[in-house]
Design a protein that fits this description.
heterodimer, A: about 300 residues, alpha+beta, Glutamine Phosphoribosylpyrophosphate, subunit 1, domain 1, Alpha-Beta Plaits, 2 domains, 7-stranded antiparallel β-sheet, 5-stranded antiparallel β-sheet, 7 helices, B: about 230 residues, mainly beta, Pectate Lyase C-like, 11-stranded mixed β-sheet, elongated
């Protein structure tokens, strides 16, 4: 099962509403995936800084973590704590050092994702409660993707929850199951990619990152996935400026899209989209199998 | 029946179960023969299992299995329908004014399903007697394992039309991307043209030239075990 959602705004006036709209979309899909939930939001950011999303135990003092990291690196690091996740903002030039310092200063923290604008949150629990704990409804941004999980291929853990991120400002949610993920993971490991889980969806995220690392656009990477990934999948993918959707050629996993002048939205079911403004007049369609859909923000 | 005597049910305020229970409790001689359903908002299983000759108009998009197992009733969806609209329909008519998602009319045993827009993959999968008329196009694997009834498509058909078909008649006006295993094109005789014209008339589809359709059906080569088919 699993439920996935995505919302890509064209009208900047809707940006303050992104989190609220996404929270409603995720909440509706609780019954497609009650095990765990997660979402990635492309929010504010500035050139020259990178945001690291880290995860710790409940009650982690992320301000204290930032203070210790600032001391170690000798540069100002700001932190925002949200439930079990913290967002650490650091000058882009110091990103690698920060990652290294994290391992010694706060080895108990896990790195969930990184990007100029991407923040990524995921946790075990009912999706509407998970979204509430992170305060998704108050988040702002240009686009985001989300997932409600009913685990099939690996354990119900926070690490196994979606979205998966394997590259800067890149994230993926997946509904389905890949049948050749072990082989693809082996190939990617040989190319130097690290994987945190046995999860098939992490392999899909890693695959796309690896393709883009080699110079492919997101559109090209998704097209290549049709050849190289085997199994059932509907993917929704976010990058700093783009938003993509891909279904496998059999297209067992449900998908509905809606587009207006103000947004493009994706839902596993139409129900998830009913709270969006102007949905009654939106163009609504089912994405075709084996067809790459892609939207990009103007620079 | 005048519109002012319609039963109005607003699903924004009335629980779906209450609506479906009310429809199930109708007696064959009920006077409540016209129902208008507002705000379905993509809910699943709207008006499933109705077994009385009433008219049900649904204003908006519905989720999965709308009008599933329908018997006798005439159900109209003024919007799109999700997966499995009119699945296992026994009789009556289900009319979707927009598009339908996958497996429309799945396993339908009788009655008529009309889709004004497109239907996606597996339209009429395992159909067992239903007549399905799609004014747009159908997706891949439509009429998969079809056993009886007819699938009439005014537009195109996707890959593997009629894969593993037992019986059933497939009339396609547009292009067929590919035929599935054991599905072949068959001659469109005067007999078939007459049958098709009748079905289109029953569905209220006028102004369509039956001569423009091609007919597909079973080659009947998969009916019995054949040792050469063993891998």
């Amino acid at each position: 099962m699993c439920g996935i959602v995505g919302l890509f705004l064209k009208d900047s006036k809707l940006e303050p509403e992104l989190g609220r709209l996404m929270a409603e979309m995720l909440g509706v899909l609780c019954d497609r995936g009650p095990d765990s939930a997660g979402f990635a939001v492309f929010g504010p950011g500035s050139t020259g800084t990178v945001k690291l999303t880290v995860r710790g135990e409940e009650g982690t003092d992320f301000q204290e973590v930032a203070r210790r990291l600032s001391e170690t690196l000798g540069t100002g690091i700001s932190a925002i704590g949200r439930h079990t996740h913290g967002i650490l903002t650091v000058p882009a030039t110091r990103e690698a050092e920060l990652k290294a310092a994290l391992r010694t200063v706060a080895p108990e923290l896990a790195l969930v994702g990184a990007g100029k604008r991407m923040e990524l949150y995921k946790e075990v629990g009912r999706p509407d409660l998970v979204a509430g704990k992170f305060g998704l409804d108050r988040m702002t941004g240009t686009h985001g993707i989300g997932h409600t999980r009913m685990a099939t291929e690996s354990a119900v853990t926070t690490d196994g929850a979606h979205p998966f991120s394997t590259g800067l400002d890149q994230c993926l949610v997946h509904n389905g199951s890949l049948s050749n993920h072990n082989a693809v993971r082996r190939d990617l490991r040989r190319d130097g990619f690290d994987f945190a889980t046995d999860n098939d969806s992490e392999v899909a995220a890693g695959y796309l990152t690896a393709r883009m690392h080699k110079g492919a656009s997101l559109r090209q990477a998704l097209t290549d996935a049709l050849t190289d990934l085997d199994g059932f999948y509907t993917f929704v993918v976010g990058t700093e400026s783009g938003f993509g959707v891909l279904r496998d050629p059999i297209a067992c996993k449900p998908a509905v899209m809606a587009e207006t002048d103000r947004y493009v939205a994706f839902g596993s079911e139409y129900r998830a989209l009913v709270g969006l403004p102007g949905i009654e007049a939106a163009k609504i369609w089912e994405p075709e199998p084996a067809t790459v859909y892609f939207w990009e923000r103007p620079n | 029946m005048s519109a002012d005597r319609a039963e109005i049910v607003d699903l924004a305020t009335t629980p779906l179960r209450q609506l479906n229970q009310a429809l199930h409790q109708l007696r064959p001689d009920t006077n409540q023969t016209l129902w208008r359903i507002a705000n379905p908002r993509g809910r699943h299983s709207v008006a499933v299992g109705v077994d009385v000759p009433v008219t049900i108009e649904i204003d908006g998009h519905v989720g999965y299995y709308c009008a599933g197992m329908n018997k006798q009733a005439t159900v109209t969806v003024n919007g799109n329908a999700g997966v499995g609209v009119a699945e296992n329909i026994m009789s009556g008519t289900v009319h979707v004014k927009g598009d339908a998602s996958q497996s429309a009319g799945a396993s339908g045993c009788g009655g008529t399903l009309i889709i004004d827009g497109n239907a996606s993959a597996r339209c009429g999968i395992s159909m067992k007697g239903v007549d399905i008329i799609v004014k747009g196009s159908v997706g891949h694997m439509s009429a998969f394992m079809a056993q009886a009834g007819s699938l009439i498509v005014l537009g195109d058909a996707g890959e593997s039309l009629g894969d593993s078909i037992y019986e059933a008649r497939l009339y396609i006006r547009g292009a067929v991307q590919s035929l599935g295993a054991d599905c072949i094109e068959k001659p469109m005789t005067a007999h078939h043209k007459a049958k098709l014209a009748k079905k289109l008339a029953v569905a209220g589809v006028a102004g369509v030239d039956v001569g423009a359709f091609r007919r597909y059906g079973s080659a009947r080569r998969l009916y019995h075990f054949h040792v050469d088919n063993v891998y």
